[in-house]
Amino acid sequence: MKKNLLVTISFIFIYLTAMQGQVKVPYEADFFPSAVNIAQTQVKVGQTVKSTTYSQVNDDIGMEVINDTTKNIYRTYFTFNFLQIPTNATITEVKVVYNTNSTGYSFKLTHITTLGTTNSNNWTVIGTSGSIKTGLVYSAYDVSFVSPELKTKIQGLLTSHEIVLGGLSESETTAGSKSDLTFSLHIKWEMPAQIFAVTAQNDMNGWSGGNIGAGVVSASSHPSPYTFPATETVTYKLKAFDNQHNDVNGYDYIYNDTEEAPLNKSEWKKTISNNETPMGATVDQTFQAVSNATYKAYLRKICNLTFTNSFNGISSTGSIKVNGTTVSAPTAQYQVVDGNTIQVEAITQTYNDIKYTFSHWSDNNSTQNPRTITATSHANISAVFIGTPIFTNFGISNRNLYSNTYNPRFPNVPITLYWDLHQSSNVTAYKVRRGANINNVTTWNIIATVSGSTTSYTDNDFLIAASKSTGSIVMYDVKAYYSPDQTVSANESITVYANYDAPVQKIANGDSISTELPAINEYALNSNYPNPFNPTTQISYQLPENSFVNLVVYNSLGQKVAELVNQEQASGKYSVKFDASNLPSGVYIYKLQTDNFSDVKKM
């Protein structure tokens, strides 16, 4: 709903004293009578009437010759009941509708004030009562006419709720004038308009405060809930407003109709005796009052969502992608209507030659990226990253790893490696890795870990050789160690020709169990078992090649709680025990980082 400037107009009530008695509510209804048909039967002998009798029959009006000596003359009286018309009503019109089953004759209607006690008395009173209408022609089709006489009569009889009308043929002395007679009354009347107490209010997840618009000329703003007297048949206007604040839950609300969000639309509903019926979805509504009705505007909650990044070791928060657009983190608040969605995506970023890759989301430990979030409440959500140092002789070439060269004047010199310092102050160590070809088998080992301020290392186990023909290939790799996330840079070695007297192997000790198995062709980090666990569980993994291995456990906030493995390991399958007896229960993340592989799982 767009913001509108609402001009406040005083509420005009139809119930004001000056207007009372002027507002009338029209009604109308059809009324059908109960009928009593009476026959006068005359029997003649010659010209002398020997007998006259009266009985109730099924025929209505006119004469019927039975035989040469007997004839019947029919008359009918009709009783109408007006119980549904209040005694204080004003009759505005009475229309008579009738039809017969024959033509060529006429009949009349009379108003019977008092019925007799016998058929004879009532047959006579039908004809002698005061006339309402004469000359009504027989017709096989419906004929109607408005009767001012009946309007007056019925107005005076509302307290008794009843009127009796007689019907007789004006040709009842003529043989063949017998006919059925069917008729009804269509009555219109007015009543003074009733005044009902009605309520207009907001519904903000059960809270009814704020402001609501209601009125006759315009929907003026009033504190919600707003109860006011409303006159029936008068059309009232309602209006819902945006930017309402719920003092109970602290959220802002809007009327979500056309432009705000596609899901969870707002609506108006009418409530009577706990029964709700929809009124419509537009912000403006109209109604005519009914007793004890409440008219509710259902507003929708605004959820404020903020997104940021969590990098260990640096103050920068980088960038993040929201709804397909890259923005600085932390972001401004994104206002999302309750029940609608927003998409967020963590982006791989590099600062100070540390490459930060997405690990999980802080609010639910999900690793889904990009992620679609259905808003239900305010939230500050962080993308948790793992930093890995970039340390290379190629591309950005920030390592510049090289060795000393052979000098024939000094033939028995150990191999010395040189490199540049990594620019990140969080690179606190360098791991020197050697791959020596011994008996045609290249074995990689971590031979030293030196401080982050060191730029050289001498390997006293090998002597520099003049050439390939005079020495063997030895490969060296210096890996930067990023202490905040306990990660190391990728494998990248240089080749040196060296001489040696015996195979040298330096393998770090660790709390893991290695099992000799058939050849393994790929890396794998398996799900822990058992899961859930209390308090210990086993984490297993496999290596297809010799590699430096780092296995770390994090809590849901991305904080490291345990380092299970941090050493060079040969290819094979491994199983490591994780003991959480000193940690709170909850969800944990474990990450395996090797020279050429990385994986994360939850437990």
Helical content class: under 10%
Mean pLDDT over the residues:
89
Named CATH architecture of the largest domain: Sandwich
Q: Sheet with the most strands? A: 8 strands, antiparallel
Describe the protein's topology.
Elements: E1 24-31, E2 34-45, E3 48-57, E4 62-65, E5 70-81, E6 90-100, E7 106-112, H1 119-128, E8 130-137, E9 143-146, H2 148-156, E10 162-169, E11 181-192, E12 195-203, E13 211-215, E14 220-223, E15 226-231, E16 235-239, E17 244-245, E18 252-254, E19 267-272, E20 275-280, E21 284-288, E22 294-298, E23 300-310, E24 319-322, E25 325-328, E26 334-337, E27 341-345, E28 349-351, E29 354-361, E30 371-374, E31 379-389, E32 402-403, E33 414-418, E34 427-438, E35 441-451, E36 456-464, E37 472-482, E38 487-488, E39 494-499, E40 513-515, E41 524-525, E42 536-543, E43 547-555, E44 560-569, E45 572-579, E46 588-593, E47 598-602
Parallel strand pairs: 12-22, 23-31
Antiparallel strand pairs: 1-11, 2-3, 2-5, 4-5, 5-10, 6-9, 6-11, 7-8, 7-10, 12-15, 13-14, 13-16, 16-21, 17-18, 18-23, 19-20, 19-22, 23-26, 24-25, 24-27, 27-30, 28-29, 29-31, 32-33, 33-36, 34-35, 34-37, 36-39, 37-38, 37-39, 40-45, 41-42, 42-45, 43-44, 43-46, 46-47
